[in-house]
Amino acid sequence: MEGLNRLRRLALQTELQEDLKWGIPVYTLKGKNVFGISAFKTHFGIWFFNGCYLKDPEGVLENAQEGKTKAMRHYKFSSLDEIMPDIVLAYMTEAVENQKKGLIHKPDRKKKTEIPAELLQVLEKDPGLHKAFKQITPYKQREYCEYIASAKQLKTKHSRLAKILPMIREGLGINDMYR
Predict the structure, then answer these.
(1) Which CATH class is domain 2-100?
(2) Pfam families this protein is in (predicted)?
(3) For 42-66, what is the mean pLDDT?
(4) Model confidence over 65-75: pLDDT tens digits?
(5) CB 25 within 8 A of CB 8
(6) Would the pLDDT of 21 be above 90?
(7) Mean pLDDT of the chain
(8) Is 151 helix (H, G, I), strand (E, B) or coil?
(9) Where along the chain do its domains lie?
(10) Which residue in 48, 122, 162, 165 is deepest, having the highest Cβ count within 10 Å?
(11) Strand order across the 32-39 sheet
(12) How far is CA 24 from each of CA 36, 49, 118, 126, rounded to the nearest angstrom?
């Protein structure tokens, strides 16, 4: 695709190393991803891994996955005419400079898991179960807590508790059967 070739020629004007990751060209600085070039059915474009730090004077950057991705931004093109080499190269160069400055988005750390009162009562009454719960990974603990907390009725919370207690004792996660 000619659009990808044009973007690649611009990327090669930077000091970045060209690698192939996830089946697309990705440009790195000292092993760190700076941006990648990819094509989709209706568009092609550049993924800036830490695009949240780009100034975006042209207003062209979009959040990669609204609500999920905090740092990544996408510069999309529908046709070759939309590629303004000076502007695209300026975005690429700024991304390189930001990488050199160490502007890297670090994900928010999860806050401590809040154990629902119903589960906490059962854990406090049964030391063996409490020990088993503490031995499973924090991720699995969160899954169990969310499973109980998301039930709207007390009856549902109790039926869910009855279901998960044997799983906790075995060290299983609530969704392990699907993994």
Answers:
(1) alpha beta
(2) DUF1801, OmdA
(3) 91
(4) 665 678 899 99
(5) yes
(6) yes
(7) 91
(8) coil
(9) 2-100, 117-178
(10) 48
(11) 17-21, 24-29, 32-39, 44-48, 73-77, 61-63
(12) 7, 14, 48, 52
